[in-house]
Amino acid sequence: MNETLFSAGSALPPAYPDRAAWGTAQKLRAWQAEALERYFQSSPRDFLAVATPGAGKTTFALRAAAELIERGIINRVTVVTPTDHLKSQWADAAARIGIAIDPNFKNADGRHGSGFIGVAVTYAQVASKPLLHRAKTEAAKTLIILDEIHHGGDALSWGDGIREAFEPAVRRLALTGTPFRSDTAAIPFVEYVEDAEGIRRSKADYTYGYGEALKDHVVRPVIFMAYSGQMRWRTSAGDEIAANLGAAATKDITAQAWRTALNPHGEWIPSVLSAADRRLTEMRRSVPDAGAMVIATDHEDARAYAGQLKRITGESPTVILSDDAKASGKIEKFSDGESRWMVAVRMVSEGVDVPRLAVGVYATSTATPLFFAQAVGRFVRARKRGETASVFLPSVPNLMALANQLELERDHALDRPQNDEADAFSEEDAEMLEANREEKASDSLTKTPFEALESQASFDRVLFDGGEFGAGGDPGSEDELDFLGIPGLLDADQVGTLLRQRQAEQQTRRSKSGSAPAQEPQVIDHRQLKDLRNELAKNVSAWSARSGSPHGVLHNELRRLCGGPAVAQANEEQLAQRLKKLQNWFIGRK
Q1: Cα gap 277→265, rounded to integer Å
Q2: Which of 234, 268, 376, 539 is the most exposed place for a label (fewest CB within 10 A)?
Q3: Taking the CB of residue 243, how many other CB atoms lie within 10 A of it?
Q4: How many C-beta neighbours within 10 Å does residue 35 have?
Q5: Residue 91: enclosing H or E segment and its boundaries?
Q6: Is the pTM of this model over 0.70?
Q7: Of 165, 94, 71, which Cα lies nearest the Cα of 125?
Q8: How far is CA 398 from CA 6, 362, 403, in A?
Q9: What is the pLDDT of residues 2-20, one digit of tens each?
């Protein structure tokens, strides 16, 4: 392979747009070099690279493009992105290594300027004029870079348009950090292979997962800070309901309690924002430019959260709204600056690189695995060894499951299995599918008329590496501060060790003071049984992915160790024992 592909003199670092991660500043990361070797050994027309957010997909793709240009295989490049902001980001990255990409090309222009070798466009832009882009593709030896390729299935017209426009391309390089969708729409130019169960799943040509990246210090370890609390609201029928966020309840009660927590006029959000800002202050002791972001559901909530942050910090946060023509400039200014907080509505959840983001508040009721993974991906980019990320979120079952399964890799399945206890995502996917189809920036939980009356926050627990730590506490209590005060520079092993130490200290302190919280009485009903079975199935799925043991083997081993009948016949106590055993395995595995 040409030596320029791996040369130290290249202007593009492995982690563009910021400097490379610790220990990689003058060379490609191992995964990038390996993926490039594989790509040029086989010289495929289509290549799908799956790499966790923050791993350096942009650098990989542009190094491949530069080599293809130098070899004379291509003489034009088209980059397709989900958003307008990402067009500029790709053009800036390409310019660093001498590839001139026009991000301002419009369909009405017909052709790009003579000084550019190609253009950056959005999926929607291509779908609206596929024949125009087909003509441009046919007119030269074109490489198509499809960024976040899973968006190619967002709408039937998009998939058809992309196939029509880019079928004549000499090369197509597809990239994604989250190779799954919340529906079964086929993704263009992705190969699907039928597995032993008859399910067609996407096949990547190269995969670099979060677990591998964490071991390589390419991404940060993520600490999830979960908050529960008492909620009260009035239904459309005039009934007042009170419930504890995260307690066993029907899906409707959970959804309304969750929505009440996110209401900007209650006490839950201000308490969580204050805790997150304290965590940011601790991070800044070792990472002076560390920043934080709130991901809001809609514009109204975003503005309200920004007002609360100004009262908490004395500093006006950057507010990013999807209808703001200056949004890209605001993101870039925040990324290059040292201000504390950004508040955004969804559009910063994917692809946008702000490497100094280290603290996040998940203040949205969107809960698909795809969106959650993309959102968390905004905080994991490592700039130097030891940086950690902290994400604050509501203590609701589906978010807890997603946080516990952060390392779980998943392919896109065209044939979704029904009633599969081992599928950790199927239930959430089904619930959110209709809402996602109708409007990405909306949420199904906002459709039920109700009035939020009161919300109070309490610290629930910390989730890390599949384990859970802490026994709850009031905001501002020593029990909460134990975890908010964790140093900002720790590697993954050190984080796990310190969390176990803090939990032990908390238990000792409570034992001495006799202030252990009273146990709530167990209410035996079918809803609790169903929730426990679902939670057990999700945790077994995550452990199976990590350990390589089949689901059935794990269930049998848990049954042997904890006693009791099969899952379908087990009672609450037996299911809880098995969950506890799994959690201990998660915590103790190394």
Answers
A1: 19
A2: 234
A3: 17
A4: 25
A5: helix 84-95
A6: no
A7: 165
A8: 43, 13, 9
A9: 444 444 335 555 654 444 4
